[in-house]
């Protein structure tokens, strides 16, 4: 089953909220998805969060011994470079021989070999992330040297392999960005409007009567980016064709 949640990212300014919105409009919904995949919604309006992306739901780990060296891969969700550094500080083991890592946030990525030969650790970890199709993800692979050298090819296979296995079974989340919208409607059309908003599972509904226009109220809300056009068409078809929508 999937879950819906909202990450705050935008606030529509209203002067006075007087209307009590039905509680059912605020309820989070569940929809079926593929195995190991869950749904989360994002309210951020930045270009980095536009559209949708898939990330991992929770921190996961994978451990494997290769020629007496122990490799432990730990993967987690990150949102930017700062959270990546925080994640690294939480999971790295200063007692280990190496703590190699890579992360990907949109088109940005970084990797580090942490003392291993150049290109034998961080790069294959990043390749594993890229191949997984996941975004906003960091993988740290900790190695405890067991006395047998693996060689360049062996290191690439070891670091890339444990990173791939770690991500392969991680539960994933499809993150959809939210579009903040507003619409002015006559009082008599509020019931029809709310019905449409409910059918499109909008969130963060607010109402403002101080529009400066007699008999007109402003209703603001957030809706999944891929539902915007259909919602506009449905509201205009059931309310009035001349209704104007405002988007951030």
TrEMBL record:
InterPro entries, A to Z: Impact, Impact_N, Impact_N_sf, Ribosomal_Su5_D2-typ_SF
Per its UniProt entry, which superkingdom is the organism in? Eukaryota
What are the Impact N-terminal domain coordinates in residue numbering? 67-167
Q: Which family does it belong to?
A: Belongs to the IMPACT family.
The name of this protein is Impact N-terminal domain-containing protein
Taxonomic classification: Eukaryota, Viridiplantae, Streptophyta, Embryophyta, Tracheophyta
